[in-house]
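Give me the fold.
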Amino acid sequence: MKRREKERIVEELKEKFARSDVAVLTRFTGLKVSEINQLRNDFKKISVDYHVVKNTLVRRAMEGTDIALLREHIQGPLAIALAQRDVVPVAKVLTSFAKEHPQLKIHVGVAQGRVMKAEEIEQAATLPGRDELVAKLLFLLNAPVVQLMSLLREIPGKLVRTLAAIQQQKEKSGEED
């Protein structure tokens, strides 16, 4: 690889690292190229980048980003998954892929400025995603308001039904006289 090409790759990686909140290093030794491409396709579905790059280029590109926390873990052949916001979808794809392809090993990751061990990433795969948690929270916050509105609607409704019953009763008693 020529120097210009290396510099271009480092700049591209630096840009992606700066935009990413989540990075997970994986060991892929023993996987076929077609299997790595399958994993890339799985990641594309959830807008995650998966790169196999030289360690020296990764070290240069990570300076000044949260991903620099992984500096000491960059040894041997590694690939890096980069995502925004949430580690859960990345963890789910990696753990399900690793079940079918045991050669893939989750090494270490960083999420929102915190280093995560492989076990923590695997545990994150069992959690609901950020969007699902936000939806549940909004439902829980909205429930008391919905109940209050239902109760407030019921008060005039009950009054109308009571007045209608009194009117019917008066009409019946008026007919009997």
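The first strand starts at residue 22 and ends at 27.
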